[in-house]
Amino acid sequence: MIYLKPEDTTIVVSSYCIKENKDELEKPIVRPGMDVVMVGSISVGATLSLAKKYESVLRDKFSTSFVDGVFELEKVSTTNMYLKMAQDFLSSVNEKALVYEIGSEGAFAGLFETSKFMGKGIEVEIPDIPVWQEVVEVAEVFDVNPYKADGTGALIIVCNRGSDMVEYLTDEGLFASVIGTVTDNNDKIARNGDEVRYLEPTRVEELANLL
């Protein structure tokens, strides 16, 4: 999917459209130093899929309120509200942005695809990536890497005023964080303290043996 919002301030792309239509896509002006924002939690799609198939496992291990909370993630499993709120902010400050809808490839691969599409490097801090506690707990039960599992329901936004956008979105009750920046090289890096990880496209489906 690719489309321009009415005010022509946001270019929205998905992994599918980048892979299938990469020579036809309009690329926004992206410069080193721009912020990388993530809206919504990673791995919501994977968490819901696991919960629906293994509900009895989760109910044996966790409290009723916790498992009910996992299923409440259904309310944030699409990006419609996130897109609208981000567009409202961008329109109010007359800014443009690149917005990438994370899909089944997961957050790390989504960041890789975003960087590749921009033709610029990207550097993010793993501890700053937003993740619901329910996602963490379910991922631990099934030994799933939530950064590589289905991330449907989250956005990557590359923009100039990331901190202002996050403040606006969080004031509206959304889950968002500035997680990194665009760099002046082609490296695709995720840092966790002194540990450096080079991002790659997804090669193996994280949930292949579970679903």
For the CA atoms, what is the radius of gyration? 17 Å
Total beta strand runs: 9
* DSSP strand content: 15-25%
Q: Please estimate the helix content.
A: 25-40%
Low-confidence stretches: 1-9, 15-25
How far the N terminus sits from the C terminus, by CA atoms, comes to 26 Å
Average residue-wise pLDDT: 87
Count every helix, treating DSSP H or I runs of 4 or more residues as helices: 8
Q: What's the helix-strand series?
A: EEHEHHHHEHEHEHEEE
Oligomeric category: single chain
Gross morphology is globular
| Structural class category | alpha+beta
Please describe the biggest sheet, giving its number of strands, its sense, and whether it closes into a barrel.
9 strands, mixed
- Largest sheet strand order: 1-2-4-6-3-7-5-8-9
What tags apply to this protein structure?
211 residues; alpha+beta; 8 helices; 21% strand; globular; disordered N terminus
Summarize the structure in words.
The chain is of the alpha+beta class and 211 residues long. Helix content is 36%, strand content 21%. The chain has eight helices and nine strands. The chain has helices at 15-21, 44-53, 55-61, 64-71, 80-93, 107-118, 133-141, 162-171; strands at 2-4, 10-14, 35-39, 97-101, 121-125, 155-159, 176-183, 188-192, 195-198. The protein has a nine-stranded mixed β-sheet with strand order 1-2-4-6-3-7-5-8-9, sandwiched between helices. A hairpin with a 5-residue loop joins strand 1 (2-4) and strand 2 (10-14). Helix 2 crosses helix 7. Residues 1-9 and 15-25 have low confidence and may be disordered.
